[in-house]
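batch_manifest entry 22 of 60
target: Sodium/proline symporter
source organism: Marinobacter zhanjiangensis
requested by: lab member K.T.
priority: normal
notes from requester: please return tokens only, no post-processing; we will run our own comparison against the previous entry in this batch. if the run fails, retry once and flag.
--- input ---
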Amino acid sequence: MATGVWISLFLYFGVMIAIGLYAMRTSTSSSEDYMLGGRSLSPKVAALSAGASDMSGWLLLGLPGALFVSGLASAWIGIGLFVGAFFNWVFVAPRLREQTVHYGNAITIPAFLANRFPTQALSLRTVSAIVIVIFFAVYTASGLVAGGKLFESAFAGVISVEGMTDYAVGIVITLGVVLAYTVVGGFLAVSMTDFVQGCIMMVALILMPAVVLFGEGGGGYAQASQTLNEVDPTLLSWTEGLTIIGWLSAVTWGLGYFGQPHIIVRFMAIRTLKDVPIARNIGMTWMGISLIGAISLGIFGRAYAVRNGLDVADSETIFIVLADLLFHPLITGFLYAALLAAVMSTISSQLLVSSSSLTEDFYRLFLRKEAKDRECVNVGRACVILVGLVAAFIASDPESMVLALVSNAWAGFGAAFGPLIILSLMWPRAPTVPVPSQAW
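--- output ---
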């Protein structure tokens, strides 16, 4: 492996850990600081943190892989997600920011729901926390699978550990770096690293499709379209071979946004209510550019592979294959860092939300009601490690598919929390008397 690749990756890892150490010194003194950043996120950090924690490895692996195989019909997933994210910012973000403070200053989604519906508080909070921990273990596993695939494809045989495959080594390295900055720095570290990672991801998704399409061997848009038509004319069709059920399944992915705790918790942490529209505009612009880049990478990557005789055994590794083939090692390392950024930004967010639920909605609720903030911060750190190890076990199967794991967790969260969050924020007959969170 070229030295330039390692230089880029070590710089990336170093920046992530440095941010974690900075956050540890400034925002880990209380539970609210560690789990919600003291509700002090600026609009740009909140926007890119929400986007980067949403757009996991599926953005650079799963979605391009689906486009690579089935063409533009799979792009409806991205369109549905864009529309769903917009409505999430419009309807959920401002109300959740305001009401989580108003109803007992809740710092977790289960605590907010318990305060909002006090007659069912204990059961609602407990079940919500269980759902969060179970599905985030699966969701986190999807990110570790992406990290494992990166190291298996790009670093085969470079990092050898006796008794471990390249895939397993990739999982260990990915999880280890994420744990390093998440455990020490908490929510602020996760959000700040998300911001940096979101910028890296967007640049990569502009650079890669442009080079694939217009660089040497690309041939431009006309040539790429001709190649795809020769392979399979349906690849350039938005509807060919797509049933009504298939189309609905794709576009309704966006409805899941209302119930994704790792995304909507960013709304709770925005600095002020008036910052929400600014964050929305920044976040939607970032998401639009990133989705267009991922769709272009998948469809034009297929044309490039055909024209140049590339054998892509796993469609979800097209980003990795092209990064290694087309760029100088320093740029290749940057592109690998972009993939790791997509993976790590989501893993860290999911680990922290799971840890928050285990700490606030189990430990503090049932085991140690009188636990002080410092104790809860330390318990939260232990829970981050615990959930990470469970996710690593789930991800240990190298045949796992990123998009399949994401779809299971996404659907689970969307069904479990989506309707309840909407009702709690917008139903006029819901309880309106604030209930202190300590009551539960």
